[in-house]
Write a structure and sequence with these properties.
23% helix; 5 helices; alpha/beta; three-stranded mixed β-sheet; 247 residues; single chain
């Protein structure tokens, strides 16, 4: 369960981005994960850990998963090299006895829960491969961020929800392959947008909808409608039907 600190950060971020604070972060976990490859959570004797979703990790049986805290135990496994000297027999022994450490933590970390492979995190929950960030959850491979939720390959961003392959975002929602944007929603392959929605393959727009500048009044009116629908669905179903990948 997410800590009170993370829960408060989620309420603050959803209030800023969606216009209304949402409580119960873990209730929205499946939705926050929906735009990225899934990974699995494994329960070991020493605790729970997130197993990465890339390289050899997806094929790793749960029984072979170990934590960094068990490194001395894993390193102390002995093989019988006297009675079974062949490479084939040693390989069989490794298959039976070997364990794989899947988590790594470096630097200074505070209030980090159910995360794997991270460095210098503060107040983080259910995240993988994240570094130099604070107040984040349900995110993967994100660096130098604060107050981000459900993001993947997102860097130098703040107060954003469900953004992907992007950088330098502020107060954004459902953005993909964008940079240097603020207060924007459902945009793809854009740069330097301010207060835009449903834009794609364009740069340097303000108060635009579907690549057309409509002015502040019309933009705010549409934004209010879209966010009201999104919040209503989230409250009822803990998920929203509209995303940057299906509009």
């Amino acid at each position: 369960m997410a800590s009170k600190k993370i829960g408060k950060a989620w309420a603050t971020t959803s209030s800023i981005v969606l216009g209304e604070p949402l409580s119960g972060l873990d209730r929205f976990g499946k939705w926050l994960f929906s735009g990225m490859p899934g990974w699995r959570e494994v329960k070991t004797k020493s605790g729970q850990v997130i197993v990465p979703c890339y390289a050899v990790f997806p094929g790793l049986p749960d029984s072979k998963v170990a934590l960094m805290k068990n490194i001395e135990e894993v390193g102390g496994i002995l093989l019988d090299i006297k009675s079974t000297p062949s490479a084939e027999s040693l390989s069989c022994q490794m298959g039976r006895k070997g364990k794989f450490i899947v988590d790594l933590a470096e630097g200074e970390n505070f209030d980090v829960d159910k995360c794997s492979i991270y460095k210098n995190l503060s107040a983080a929950h259910m995240s993988l491969d994240c570094f130099y960030s604070k107040y984040l959850a349900y995110s993967w491979f994100c660096d130098n961020n604060d107050h981000i939720f459900g993001c993947q390959f997102t860097f130098f961003s703040s107060f954003s929800i469900k953004c992907y392959h992007s950088s330098h975002l502020q107060r954004c929602f459902e953005m993909d392959s964008c940079s240097k944007c603020s207060d924007s929603y459902f945009c793809h392959d854009c740069e330097n947008l301010q207060n835009c929605m449903f834009c794609f393959n364009v740069n340097n727009l303000r108060y635009a909808v579907a690549n057309v500048v409509v002015g502040k009044e019309k933009f705010e009116s549409l934004k209010k409608q879209v966010l009201a629908r999104t919040v209503r669905e989230l409250k009822e179903k803990a998920a929203a039907s509209l995303s940057v990948y299906n509009f």
